[in-house]
């Protein structure tokens, strides 16, 4: 490999790195924008509900009416908390998936480039160096297998977390009417 080709590959690698960093920064900004929008919408909604609840509480005439009102005031806040948590989780999960997908594509490209460079170097290498190149290829294959394993494990962990969040949301929604009913009967 001559010096000119090495400089071109180095410049290309730097260009790819800058593109990756730019893409990651843009994805991060998008996720922050979405999270900020969710936070503002939730805060606005909670403020509106709080004002309405305060007006309702101020209109109550008897302690019994206040006790009856307690369950109906808590339910909307609980629902909003579940929706908010779900929104944060979705934003985080989508961001993680986008970044993982970007890395998978880039790692595949880098592996191909590295393997091609290794093959080219092997062609011009002195006799007897085949074992060294075979060891390099074996190391690259091993690293790829580890990366694939980690990628699969991450996807499985994401699926488990998704199922857990869904189950928790369902449990909270299912438990809250029973809790309200038990408060009314008490």
Q: Any key phrases for this structure?
A:
3 helices; single chain; disordered C terminus; 186 residues; mainly alpha
Structure report:
With 186 residues, the protein is mainly alpha-helical. The protein has helices spanning 3-58, 63-124, 130-185.
What is the secondary structure topology, with strand pairs?
Elements: H1 3-58, H2 63-124, H3 130-185
Helix pairs in contact: 1-2, 2-3
Quick overview:
This protein is mainly alpha-helical and 186 residues long. The chain is built from three helices and no strands.
Q: Sheet with the most strands?
A: none
Spell out the helices and strands N to C. Answer: HHH
What percentage of residues falls in helices of 4 or more residues? over 70%
Low-confidence stretches: 177-186
Overall mean pLDDT: 80
Q: Give the number of DSSP strands.
A: 0
How many helical elements? 3
- Proportion of beta-strand residues: under 5%
Radius of gyration: 28 Å
**What does the overall shape look like?**
elongated
The N- to C-terminal Cα distance equals 84 Å
Classify the secondary structure makeup into a structural class: mainly alpha
